[in-house]
Amino acid sequence: MTSTRRWPGPLSKPQDWLRWSSAIAIASAVFLSVCVNVLSARFDRRWDATSDRRYTLSDVTRETLSAIHEPVVVYVLLSRADTIAPTVQQVLAGYTSLSRQLTLRWVDPDRDPGQFLATQAELGIAAGASKGDKSLSDSIIVITRGKGKSYVTTDDIAIVDPETGESELRLEQSLTRGLRQLNDTSRPLVCFTQGHRELNLNDEGPTGLSDWRARLRREPLELTTIDLGAGKQSELKRCQLVVVAAPDIPLSTWAQEQLRAHLLEFGSMLVLSNTIPDESGEIRSTGLDALVSPATVSIGRNVVVEQDESQRLPDGFGESFFARVSDHAVTRALNRGTVERSLRVLVSLAPTLSIADETLTRPLLTSTEKAIGVGNIGDYLNKTQKATAAVTTAAGKRLVLAVAAELRGNSQGGARRLIVAPASLVENRVMRLPALAGNRAFINGALTWLLARPVGVEIPSAHHASRQLNLSDADLTRLNRYVLLIMPATVAVFGLGVALARRQRRKSRLS
Predict the structure, then answer these.
(1) Is residue 321 predicted with pLDDT exceeding 90?
(2) What DSSP element (H or E) covers 491?
(3) How confident is the model at residue 132 (pLDDT cuts 50, 70, 90)?
(4) Which of 10, 138, 411, 427 counts the highest number of beta carbons within 10 A?
(5) d(CA 490, CA 419)
(6) Are residues 239 and 285 in the same domain?
(7) Bridge partners of 453?
(8) Which value, to the nearest 10 degrees, does the dihedral of the CA atoms of residues 459, 462, 465, 469 take?
(9) Alpha helices, H only, 141-244
(10) Residue 409 and residue 400: Cα distance in Å, rounded?
(11) Nearest-5° angle of CA 245, CA 247, CA 249?
């Protein structure tokens, strides 16, 4: 007696159930794919899988993007075949994912030269055109908001170390700085004093300030110089910030009175201290004590010599070393969570600072407990008996190198702030080294605190120039042929073979 198993319903064969279940699975997969694409378009999220987090945007950039409330167009005038193009594309994709106000327009000069020339003319980029000390013809990225424009050149996005020759990408820093310039329309006036052989903004030598001037010109600031050596009435009252950059001769009594009156009534001041040795090596007074006395600070007539081998540079006698950073609003940008990751600040030939009222004035940079203050460099280097008498120690405490003081407001209610720091922080020989990002972050933090507004964007780069894969148009054509024709054809042939094999197997079972 033979029994036949019957399947319920209209589907009387197992093959029918298998066919319908496969169709349902395919429909479900298509539905889920559509849902994933819709959600990804609605909620843009990016994950950085690189080991050095090269495409992860910093908190400074996120804060800048959140403050954009008007449409901003970013023009990229760069060939897709350029070695830096993939990195630019990925970084800008991170920007556009965080702000819906940003629109990206990429113009490739190789693929569309006509559109490239028209876009350059529209953006005011012509041969020989310049803005400040920047050549606009070298611009590869232009950020526009309304009529305002910010240009990013090839020199802005990469820094070359003169010692090693390695290039370090600074793309995010340049883009964020450009966005900040468009967001901030006010331009505070920063005045640099002259007349007492101060450090010169136009000096391109190792001890000049030309690199710092170039960085300041990228910010929404106005720079000017005021001569206090002629004894004429000055216009210091127009200045939101006055910078006294290491005078080489003592300030005159009249200049001291002018600067002191400005600090007490009108605005803030940045005093870059220095040391002036005479012919015998003894440190002379610079006349800066009268300026910093309202903050109960006195500048020592000596040079700090660091004796801790782990902090001082191998060259010299200990006059150049890495300072200890104290917690303050000025130095917050240097903190990276751990001591190993935090930025360090290099100082050189710094005098000691004494603070009488620590409730008014706070230290920013200090030495180690092993440092000493030398009053006569010649005697110290020659190890004479006078050297011991000219040495200043802090009895196991750290010597103070830089301070910040917040004085009471002026008659108009404006803040009056004072920072005293070594002039070596901003000299060209320091500002030109990519490795000394801590010095740049410190001076940016000082200006931000003195002006009570963000100044400078110092974002540490997580990587050097990355290795890229370059593909020509012929390579792209072969790649498209492989992806669109060869791969699908191979899969189709393989699937046909599998289907024929299954049909043959089914026939053999029935037989």
Answers:
(1) yes
(2) helix 487-510
(3) low
(4) 427
(5) 71
(6) yes
(7) none
(8) -130
(9) 171-183, 210-217
(10) 26
(11) 175
pLDDT exceeds 60 at position 385? no
Collapsing DSSP states into helix, strand and coil, what is residue 309? Answer: coil
Confidence of residue 322 (pLDDT cuts 50, 70, 90): very high
Count Cα neighbours of 338 within 13 Å in the Cβ-side half-sphere. Answer: 2
For residue 395, pLDDT over 60 is answered with no
- Token readout for 375 is 């009053």
My answer on whether 280 and 196 are in the same domain is: yes
Residue 112 sits in a domain of what CATH number? 3.40.30.10
CB–CB of 224/192 below 8 Å? yes
Tell me the pLDDT band of 323, cut-offs 50, 70 and 90: very high
Is there a single domain that holds both residue 374 and residue 323?
yes
Position 167 scores a pLDDT of 60
Q: Which residues contact 240 (CB under 8 A, 6 or more apart)?
A: 188, 189, 190, 267, 268, 451
Whether residue 350 sits in one domain with residue 215:
yes
Number of domains the chain contains: 2
Give the residue numbers spanning the domain of 277. Answer: 187-451
Rounded-to-integer distance, Cα 189 and Cα 222, Å:
5
In three-state secondary structure terms, 31 is: helix
pLDDT digits (tens, 9 = 90+) for 230-288: 766 667 888 889 999 999 888 888 888 888 888 888 778 999 988 887 777 778 878 88
| Chain length of the chain | 511
Q: Which two tokens stand for residue 186?
A: 């006010």
- Per-residue pLDDT of 449-468, as tens digits, reads 888 776 656 665 554 444 44
User: Which 3 state secondary structure label does DSSP give 25?
Assistant: helix
CATH code of the domain covering residue 287:
3.40.50
Q: Is 379 part of any domain?
A: yes
What's the token pair of residue 507?
């026939």
**What Rg do the C-alpha atoms of the chain give, in angstroms?**
33
Closest CA relative to residue 306, chosen from 324, 295, 297, 319: 319
Cα–Cα distance, 486 to 479 (Å, whole number): 10
Q: What percent of the chain has pLDDT over 70?
A: 78
| pLDDT over threshold 70, residue 55 | no
Element (H, E) at 107: strand 102-107
**Domain boundary residue among 410, 433, 451?**
451
Q: Are residues 146 and 259 in the same domain?
A: no
Place of tokens 């569309």: 112
Q: Average pLDDT of 202-222?
A: 87
Residue 98 within any structural domain of the chain = yes
